[in-house]
Amino acid sequence: MTPKVSRFLRDVAPATPCLVLDVDRVAENYGRLHAALPAARIYYAVKANPAAPVLDRLVALGSSFDAASFEEVSMCLDAGADPARISYGNTIKKESAIRAAFAAGVRMFAFDSEAELRKLSRAAPGARVYCRILVGNLGAEWPLSKKFGCEVGEARRLMLLAEGLGLDPYGLSFHVGSQQTNTDAYRAAIARAAMLFTDLTQAGVNVRMVNLGGGYPVRYRAEVPEIDAIGDAIMGAMAEHFGNAMPEMVIEPGRFLVGDAGVVSAEVVLVSRKSQDDPVRWVYLDIGRFGGLAETEGEAIKYAFRTPHDGLAEGPVTIAGPTCDSTDTLYETSNYRLPLALDEGDRVEILSTGAYVTTYASQRFNGFAPLAEHYV
């Protein structure tokens, strides 16, 4: 929690549940990432947190943007982004959305199938396109390896087809999975992309960009690799596989830029036990999976908690949200422990929740309004 967020929570005591995010921390993280990977162009993954104050600051810093929908393209344009610095990175797009983005000036689009490539040829003639390939996601706490990407052989065929369809076969992309904690995942993915890159070049395709996607982690409960170590791993692998013929490099950070900039402030609604001798208390908060903490699915992302009673005796807990849905249980098997003094009415802070919380919040499930947002 940054000092600015702490002061806001202390002085304003906003109604819960809410997100409080320090925009200056976003700028600091942008600077750290740029220092770790100075050769790469940063395309912020807008889906992580599309709030106007975040986009405004990143535009001012010279960031580019990775949009997953035409609505996100519009958000970037409203913030003053140059459309030439927006990539439409979702491989699943309506043709009408492609056409609208192209009309707005976007010229860079992702694909991973022939059907998508043909849509691009019709709706965005002459656009720069890049093919997403399948890579391993081992080490990622939120894997992305099944829904997106195609096998290398298919990617080769599609990149050869792209030029014949009047498109510019600009590059290749991959994603090692969100919250990636294993630097070897980047090395393996770069090696896979480099083989295809070389093959395409030898086949006469003017491929010249590698998009390394996102995955850059933030600290929740466990330690993660520092961004400098990830940068060293990436640049070492790029030098090993490309040598002096280094392609253009693009990265698409989301979580890394905004995750630890934000804190969710919540209230304890109820503390109970299933029987008098049950050692495990159930702690129900006024925010849960449907309120924005969707990444607790499968207890994948393990947020850290801060309470008014930290330092006192603790006991095991199951942590759940307020809705009348049994899947609204956040942590049951991940060995969470909270102070025995914790009681209803206490405020708790859920740390490093600046990414993928506001955009995952449901629209009034059980009547609960989406959490409020405060940018400081």
Describe what this molecule looks like in 3D.
Helix 2 runs parallel beside helix 9 (227-242) and helix 5 (95-103) crosses helix 6 (114-123). The chain contains ten helices and 19 strands. Strands 1, 12, 13, 14, 15, 16, 17, 18 and 19 form a nine-stranded mixed beta sheet that branches. It has helices at residues 3-12, 23-36, 52-61, 70-78, 95-103, 114-123, 152-164, 183-202, 227-242, 255-258; strands at 18-21, 40-45, 64-67, 86-88, 108-111, 128-132, 140-142, 168-173, 178-180, 209-211, 248-251, 262-272, 281-285, 305-306, 314-320, 329-331, 337-339, 347-350, 372-375. The chain has two domains: 50-253, Alanine racemase (TIM Barrel), CATH 3.20.20; 260-375, Lyase, Ornithine Decarboxylase, Chain A, domain 1, CATH 2.40.37. With 376 residues, the protein is an alpha/beta fold.
Entry keywords:
376 residues, alpha/beta, TIM Barrel, Lyase, Ornithine Decarboxylase, Chain A, domain 1, 9-stranded mixed β-sheet, 8-stranded parallel β-barrel, 10 helices
